[in-house]
TrEMBL record:
Protein location: Cell membrane
GO biological process, alphabetically ordered: inflammatory response; phospholipase C-activating G protein-coupled receptor signaling pathway; positive regulation of cytosolic calcium ion concentration
Membrane topology: Multi-pass membrane protein
Protein name: Chemokine-like receptor 1
PROSITE patterns reported in the protein's UniProt record: G_PROTEIN_RECEP_F1_1 (PS00237), G_PROTEIN_RECEP_F1_2 (PS50262)
Transmembrane parts of this sequence: 24-47, 59-86, 106-129, 141-160, 202-230, 242-263, 275-299
Species this chain originates from: Alligator sinensis
Domain G-protein coupled receptors family 1 profile: 40-297
Family in the record: Belongs to the chemokine-like receptor (CMKLR) family.
Pfam family, any one: 7tm_1
Amino acid sequence: METSSPTSSPDTGSHDRLTRGIHIFSMIIYSIAFLLGVTGNGLVIWVTGFHMKRTVNTVWFLNLAIADFIFTFFLPLSITSIAMHFHWPFGRALCKLNGGLASLNLYASVFFLTVISLDRCVCVVFPVWTQNHRQPRLASLVALGIWILSLILCMPYWYFREIDHDDSKNVTYCYKEFDTTGEAATEEEWKRVITSNSRATVIIRFIFSFIIPFYIIVICYGVIVAKLLTSQLALSSKPFKIIAVVIVVFFLCWFPLHVFSFLEMDDLPKFRTAVHIGMPLVSSLAFVNSCLNPILYVFMAHDFKEKLRHSLFLAFEKAFTEDAPIVAVQTQSTMKSDSQTL
């Protein structure tokens, strides 16, 4: 039987049990994200990269899947670290790599979702321009620009990731080290620099990976809805459902992480317990987004269930060959009205 130390209290024991429960929950979510993310995104890469003609859609979905696949592929490192009570046995290089890949996935995935929204908006609003200028080569150049921008924005997370060995516990931690002052700095300078670096990374991430992309996505789908409502076409309700799901999932997956990042940055005593408990949960929620993309953009595609009965590959190909569910609805409605006039 275990005995409690004289300084232990029921509150401390309850807090420890809650913390262990959250860590177990995080490992389960990470494991699910790893299995679904590697499988789903790997299948998307296989279909779009090796079994389909290169089109604008395949360029978008291939790069989105690569971003999510790379991140989910390295999730076992985080799972192992949590299982070992945050001991990091993989060395400094993998510590920096793992932290950098998480940030790279965040930016690249969000940027590609934004570009897909812009592309769908352009297809609906400017169909003639789209037919003449929407080429895979241009899409590939845009994708290359997204990767370069994502690498630039995630550089601070590569730079600030470090390891530290606790000799008393024989444990190595992989964490964000925002101290860039050097040994000769005073305590006041040390605190100021750490606070400044921490705030800068959180604010930059919030602006570039959430505010700007979310604003663009909402504007794009708002324009699409307005265009369809004024087009006098017989429209299915499915495109509107897809629009709603895309916006809601994007918001629910990412916004809580940014909120807790700001709370963690301010380090207010009244929020420390909430941050300690909530940060692993909202991080798990954000990571799940990496395995939801194939479901949102493929499994919700037009006529997916019917194609799935014949072949999973055919279902994926059907989704990727559609310009967009909304465009498909417009085309079908236009053909219907043309046939009536004939």
